[in-house]
TrEMBL record:
Keywords: Glycosyltransferase, Transferase. It comes from Caldicellulosiruptor owensensis (strain ATCC 700167 / DSM 13100 / OL). Signal peptide: none annotated. Pfam families: GH94_b-supersand, Glyco_hydro_94. SMART domains: CBM_X. GO terms for biological process: carbohydrate metabolic process. The lineage of its organism: Bacteria, Bacillati, Bacillota, Bacillota incertae sedis, Caldicellulosiruptorales. It comes from the Bacteria. One of its GO terms (molecular function) is glycosyltransferase activity. Residues 11-281 form the Glycosyl hydrolase 94 supersandwich domain. InterPro entries: 6-hairpin_glycosidase_sf (IPR008928), 6hp_glycosidase-like_sf (IPR012341), Gal_mutarotase_sf_dom (IPR011013), GH65_N (IPR037018), GH94_catalytic (IPR033432), GH94_Enzymes (IPR052047), GH94N_ChBP (IPR037828), Glyco_hydrolase_94_b-supersand (IPR010383). This is Glycosyltransferase 36. Residues 301-712 form the Glycosyl hydrolase 94 catalytic domain.
Length: 790
């Protein structure tokens, strides 16, 4: 069963049945002002920080599931019947109410038809202004004149989202609402201790506001809800001014429509006060033309970001995801890390060190300058000893508020992701100058970026355990494997192996031979420990517990095999051999399902303190034997590196959201973006159900796995590698890509129907040796013909 479809032409996901099993949302806004909006117009906005700058309210994990939001109600003055343009919150019977929601790139629209009235609401955030624009259109398709009241409603949050949710005895006595009568603008201000000294306004730019309310409890009424606000029943707002209490912005505008006539209304909700910014923006967006022009800028913005990579393969869904939705999600995770969604309530905003380091991979081809800035921000959260702050907020860091973790909160992997992120940036851009940039450490001192990387390697070297493997510390990539007190992590060791290899490659490339030799010796030592202590016969163990017991071994009583230590054995480059293949065969045998590979098997049933929080989840959920999508992307990469194209593609398809569109009643989450996990096979009821959509490292890695390892178009310091690993039934594929400012049209043919191997590459008609296209060979525009073969 589906609830909608992909409109490829318009780059939209169209929801035709608003009764989706969960809220299917979109992110609007690109920098300072962001709003999250569901297919029923619910959600919230924030300015700069979802924690401290929360503009509007959302009641998380509540019932009804989706409230409040930004609502536009139409009331027929003759019949007193009223509805909302989005199906909810009024929720008219769907046999009489046609509802369509289109989530597009940077905008969402709602269209409805009810009682011969067609209406639409388009919401977007300008690229460079801190406000949201609601564009409403109403058309009378009946044969009689209609008189309407249009009511709008949104509930303000008291800026500090945590206090707003908890500290009612205090926070409910802080707001000061007002109304700029002359310009008809609602004024919201509150004196807090937030860095932003926040103020907001709401207005209609092109029609007279007949009445307004700024006190939620007056507009809605104590025994009503957003479905049936008192003011709408009353036919008029009450002119309430909230001084303390729950602030809102509600307005009433009146329109008359002759048969066939259409009217538009523009509403603005923005940052600033009603007497300055509010007045200025009201003038700026008084006409529909100015609104449309602003909207074009949003479209241009997304076009510019997404047009750096485009592919045409034999799989339509793969194309759809890679060309549109996967990239869009990558930009969202890059912007908002893991801080604001419908399930991340925003209490922990800023950047997760490991998450943000990985997030750059999916956008570096598109916004290299922003990635450079982000890398510097991340490096500032590294400590001089080499490890990193697990989580930090650049806004407060720059005010000197460092959240330096106590030793027991040091993670074994955070800092090592720098060795993935910085090389990826340089390989994409050729910008080696970043290595010389001097960046301060979070605690004391400063060093060049190159030395920051070395320091990260040193920290891990100095934090190995009894078997010579990396200590697990607070956790490794898997937040819920907590191998404290001397426990060791195979996976971190594999990441370390990869990090060392990346560094060695870089050092050799820039002529730092001594450094390269030093870290080669480290790598050899690490490999010895891996050879000796991580192979378990059919697969690699996940680590060692503090007690000395193996984790994820045939000897283990619970969870005998883990996914990550198999995929990373190969991905790290340490076991591109028979052991690696056998380990990946074990993945197929024990972990693979039709929805992707489970993270561990069999699931933990009992809590084991020395393993950690993974054991607290019921089987099949979240970190315990669920299909953790992020980890599934590395399985694709490992199979591609082993040259097994059928497997790589099969795994890619198994958890591709677009493939779940027709089973959306089982999958339940948005079929246009990746979710963090899909419930695993050991769950008694919900196998195949996705949870925690949008803000997941799956986005960045799924894009990387598909584009760089299946399609095999992979940046290198010297140029672009073409190394596809595809299903042998494919005849070929095409990629349009921008690389270091040059355009490449790459056409790959596969006449012998193989999975891997490149026989010939012609660049602008000239054959090259090998499968690396040197950057010096590239013109502004290039035609690349690739023939696969042995
Ligand atoms: O790696 C983590 C990530 O940082 C946050 N979400 C869960 C992942 C796996 O534990």
């Amino acid at each position: 069963m589906n609830f909608g479809y992909f409109d490829e032409q318009r780059k939209e996901y169209v929801i035709t049945n608003p009764k989706t099993p969960t809220s299917w949302v979109n992110y609007l806004g690109t920098s300072d002002y962001c709003l999250i909006i569901s297919n029923n117009a619910s959600g919230y906005s924030f300015y700069k920080s979802p924690k401290l700058g929360r503009v509007t309210r959302f009641r998380f994990n509540s019932i009804p599931m989706d409230r409040p939001g930004r609502y536009v109600y139409l009331k027929d003055e003759k019949t007193n019947d009223f509805w909302s343009i989005s199906w909810q919150p009024v929720g008219k019977p769907l046999d009489k109410f046609l509802s369509i929601c289109r989530h597009g790139l940077g905008y969402t629209t709602f269209e409805s038809k009810y009682n011969s009235i067609t209406s639409s609401l388009k919401i977007f955030v300008p690229v460079d202004k801190p406000l949201e624009i609601w564009e409403v259109k109403i058309k009378n398709d009946s044969n009689e004149k209609k008189e309407f009241s249009v009511f709008t409603y949104t509930e303000f949050c008291l800026w500090n989202s945590m206090l707003d949710m908890m500290d009612f005895q205090y926070i409910l006595y802080t707001c000061r609402m007002g109304y700029n009568k002359e310009d008809e603008i609602i004024d919201y201000s509150i004196k807090l201790w937030s860095p932003y000294e926040p103020k907001a306004f709401f207005t209609c730019t092109n029609k007279k506001i007949e009445s307004f309310d700024t006190d939620r409890d007056v507009f809605v009424g104590p025994y009503n809800s957003e479905s049936n606000p008192e003011a709408i029943k009353n036919g008029k707002c009450f002119g309430s001014i909230a001084i303390g209490g729950n602030p809102c912005a509600a307005t009433q505008v009146k329109i008359d429509l002759q048969p066939g006539q259409e009217e538009y209304l523009v509403f603005l909700l923005g940052i600033g006060n009603a007497y300055e910014e509010g007045r200025e923006y009201k003038k700026m967006f008084a006409s529909i033309d100015s609104v449309e022009k602003e909207f074009e800028k949003v479209q241009e913005y997304w076009k510019e970001r997404l047009n750096k990579f485009e592919c045409k393969t034999q799989d339509e869904k793969m194309n759809l995801m890679l060309n549109i939705w996967n990239q869009y999600q990558c930009h969202t995770t890059f912007n908002w890390s893991r801080s604001a969604s419908f399930i991340e309530a925003g209490g922990r905003d800023g950047l997760g060190f490991r998450d943000s380091s990985q997030d750059i991979l999916g956008v570096v081809h598109s916004i290299p300058q922003e990635v450079r800035r982000r890398l510097i921000e991340l490096l500032k959260a590294q400590l001089s000893e080499g490890y990193a702050m697990h989580h930090f907020q650049p806004l407060t860091m720059s005010q000197g508020k460092h959240n330096i973790p106590p030793r027991e909160r040091i993670y074994s992997d955070d800092h090592l992701w720098l060795l993935i992120a910085v090389p990826a940036y340089i390989k994409e851009t050729g910008d080696f100058s970043i290595l010389d940039e001097i960046v301060e450490y979070a605690d004391s001192g400063s060093a060049s970026v190159y030395d920051h990387l070395k320091q990260a390697l040193e920290f891990s070297w100095n934090n190995r355990g009894k078997h010579g493997l990396l200590l697990g510390l607070a956790a490794d990539w898997n937040d819920c494997i907590n191998l404290k007190d001397g426990g060791e992590s195979t996976w971190s060791t594999q990441l370390y192996y990869k990090a060392l290899s990346e560094f060695i490659e870089l050092a050799e490339y820039i002529g730092k031979t001594e450094d390269a030799e030093k870290y080669k010796a480290y790598r050899e030592e690490i490999k010895k420990a891996m050879d000796e202590y991580t192979w378990d016969g059919e697969w690699f163990v996940r680590g060692y517990l503090a007690s000395g017991k193996k984790l994820g071994s045939k000897e283990s009583e619970q969870s005998k095999i883990f996914l990550n230590s198999q995929s990373w054995a190969v991905f790290s480059g340490a076991f591109l051999d028979e052991k690696g293949k056998t380990a990946m065969d074990s993945v197929k045998k024990y972990l693979a399902t039709e929805h992707g590979c489970v993270k561990n098997w069999p699931a933990y049933v009992d809590y084991i303190i020395e393993v950690g929080a993974i054991t607290s989840f019921p089987p099949g959920l979240k970190e315990n034997a669920a299909i953790f999508c992020h980890a599934n992307t590395w399985v694709i990469i490992a199979e591609a590196l082993l040259g097994r194209g059928e497997y790589a593609f099969e795994y890619y398809m198994s958890f591709l959201p677009a493939n779940k569109n027709e089973i959306a009643e089982i999958y339940t989450a948005e079929p246009y973006v990746y979710s963090q996990f899909i419930t695993g096979k050991e769950h008694p009821y919900y196998f195949g159900r996705a949870r925690n959509p949008w803000l997941t490292g799956t986005a960045t890695w799924a894009f990387t796995a598909a584009t760089q390892y299946i399609l095999g178009v992979r940046p290198h310091y010297k140029g672009l590698i073409i190394d596809p690993c595809i299903p042998s039934c494919w005849d070929g594929f095409e990629v349009e890509r921008v690389f270091r400012g040059r355009k490449l049209s790459i056409k790959v043919s596969n006449p012998d129907h193989i999975s891997k191997g490149v026989k010939k590459i012609l660049v602008n008609g000239k054959e090259i040796v090998g499968n690396l296209i040197p950057v010096e060979l590239l013109d502004e525009k290039n035609v690349v013909e690739v023939v696969m073969g042995k």
